Amino acid sequence: MIEFKNVSLVYPNGHQGLKNINLKINDGEFVVVVGMSGAGKSTLIRSINRMVTPTEGELLLDDQDILSFKEKQLRKLRTEVGMIFQSYNLVKRMSVLRNVMAGRLGHTGTLRSMLGLFPQEDLQLGMSNLERVGIQEKAYVRADQLSGGQQQRVSIARVLTQQPKVILADEPVASLDPPTSHKVMKDLRRVSKEDNLTTLVNLHFIDMAQEYADRIIGLRDGEVVFDGPIDQVTDKTFEEIYGRPIKEDDLLGGDES
Ligand SMILES: Nc1ncnc2c1ncn2[C@@H]1O[C@H](COP(=O)(O)OP(=O)(O)OP(=O)(O)O)[C@@H](O)[C@H]1O
Questions:
Q1: Structural domain includes residue 255
Q2: Residue 257 CB less than 6 A away from ligand 1
Q3: What distance in angstroms lies between residue 15's CA and the mean position of ligand 1's atoms?
Q4: What is the pTM of this model?
Q5: DSSP classification of residue 133
Q6: pLDDT tens across 21-37, in order?
Q7: Which residue range is the domain that position 174 belongs to?
Q8: What ipTM does the predicted assembly reach?
Q9: How many domains are there within the chain?
Q10: Which of 3, 54, 76, 114 makes a 20 to 30 Å CA pair with 224?
């Protein structure tokens, strides 16, 4: 379980990114975080792997306060909490499989990883994760030869190969067209559920949020202004989170066709 207890974060320039956050996120939940640009979505999820560090409160992962973690514990935390980025963050010149194997970095020694000396069972794990997202035939292709949707699937396979407890996804479909966005979100949700991973996804399209979330957390100006299961979420909820009527731009539209 992830628990935020009175968590606040003030950036070095004095800007308050998070204000007194109190949340409990259960194992296996698929949570979508929504809010306007600048509301604090990235700050919230990046606190969980300490890419940013809250300045007040306690942030518990399985009852351990990660805000007190130093180097060695931080490395372990980042093995347990995987991340998916809008820009995929693949090494473009390397093969798809090599990128996926980067997920084992925290498990295999750095030198062995740099030399590409992965144990056979790790390679099998990497290949099976590529298969789970439907691109095993691309394993030996250079990452930059793939489409955006395929590259994001590689990054999903990489995070699965890391065998984390938690996945953080920061606007994972913001660079993709509507049909591809739906396919990637479906894959992400399916594999998260199959592996019982706790997943937090930042999305800015409210129709996507409604389609894939178990639970929605709404942020405004660094504060939680809504937190509830998807069946309690209506268009009015989003108007309250955004503090204004819903506009066409807030919807991705389209479907998988
Ligand atoms: N390193 C930083 N130093 C100072 N202020 C920051 C820093 N990073 C983010 N902020 C500010 O904190 C607020 C929250 O930013 P954050 O990136 O978490 O928002 P967001 O909801 O993810 O927005 P977006 O959808 O635009 O990415 C914004 O006002 C942003 O300008």
A1: no
A2: no
A3: 9
A4: 0.94
A5: T
A6: 999 999 999 999 999 99
A7: 2-250
A8: 0.96
A9: 1
A10: 76
